[in-house]
Amino acid sequence: MSEKVTFEEIPLDLIDVGPWQARTRKIEENTDELAENIKCLGLINPITVYKKEDGRYELITGQRRLIAVEKLGWKTIPARVLKEKPTEVFAKAISFSENILRQPLSYADVKDTIVMLYHRCGASGRTISKTLGIPYRIVLDVIKYEELPDELKKMVDNGEIDVKTAKKAVDFCTTPDGNVDVSKAVTMARELKILVPSQVKTLEKLITERPDLPAEQLIEQAKAVQPTRRIYIELLMSEYEGLRKAAETKGLSEEEAAYNALITWLKNEGFL
Questions:
Q1: Pairing between strand 15-17 and 57-61?
Q2: Whether 19 and 92 share a structural domain
Q3: What is the pTM of this model?
Q4: Which among 70, 100, 130 is the end of a domain?
Q5: Do 81 and 49 sit in the same domain of this protein?
Q6: Are 240 and 254 part of one and the same domain?
């Protein structure tokens, strides 16, 4: 068929969802995040409809976008309007192609977008997460990575350490005036990844008390901390989700978050 197309702003209350939508399950899944994205960036891709003889429009592609803008209270929506009624096969194929041909961005592309929004637009991590529909922990890791000295970035890129370890090493080796002792931070980072939580806590305390000591001496003293015992606990999924969210929000590992919660409770109850 010869396709005649115009681009128009059409009222939502004149749109009917056609029977040829490729996506028929979990249609409303993540539409809150999509609505937040559209609210921040606008509707980048118009929906596709065709105009029926009665003056109403039948939706061919863009059902989730339509749901999202309805949630935002929009009265009209940008649309690509077909002037001729498509065959059922053609309409189904368009809907399927739009959904199946979307390729996920590479991690490098995701990172570049996060960095641009963070530095050029001044957006917070939470805003970037909601706008792009990317988990906050990923956004946080990218932001932390960007703030690392080049030497520690290379260690992360080479797989020697993760971003959280690198950031902790930087925090430990930052002077009161905001300068980072990069050489000391590199040494710290290599050792931090093998320390248990109690040793990391001891190291943190030692650095606070004796920031003038060399990294090697601080680490040696931290490793000499009293013997530790590993325990395992089972959590209900709801309890685990609470722990996971706490760790994500605070930029900690789940083990660190659990350790901090336990030690805080023991101190509050007077056992430590």
A1: parallel
A2: yes
A3: 0.49
A4: 100
A5: yes
A6: yes
3-state secondary structure the chain: CCCCEEEEEEEHHHEEECCCCCCCCCCCCCHHHHHHHHHHHCCCCCEEEEECCCCCEEEEECHHHHHHHHHCCCCEEEEEEECCCCCHHHHHHHHHHHHHCCCCCCHHHHHHHHHHHHHCCCCCHHHHHHHHCCCHHHHHHHHHHHCCCHHHHHHHHCCCCCHHHHHHHHHHCECCCCCECHHHHHHHHHHHCCCCHHHHHHHHHHHHHCCCCCHHHHHHHHHCCCCCCCCCCCCCHHHHHHHHHHHHHHCCCHHHHHHHHHHHHHHHCCCC
pLDDT digit string, tens, across residues 185-202: 999 999 888 887 778 888
Q: Identify the domain containing residue 30 by its residue range.
A: 5-100
Q: Are residues 202 and 111 in the same domain?
A: yes
**CB contact set of 105 (below 8 Å; sequence gap of 6+):** 113
Are 239 and 199 within one domain?
no
pLDDT digit string (tens) for 108-165?
777 888 888 787 667 677 777 777 777 888 888 888 888 899 999 999 888 888 888 8
Domain termination site, one of 71, 100, 129: 100
Check whether residue 91 and residue 202 sit in a common domain: no
Say whether both 259 and 167 belong to one domain: no
- Work out how many domains the chain is built from and give that number: 3
What is the Cα–Cα distance from 16 to 86, expressed in whole angstroms?
A: 15
| Residue among 21, 23, 63, 65 nearest 43 (CA) | 65
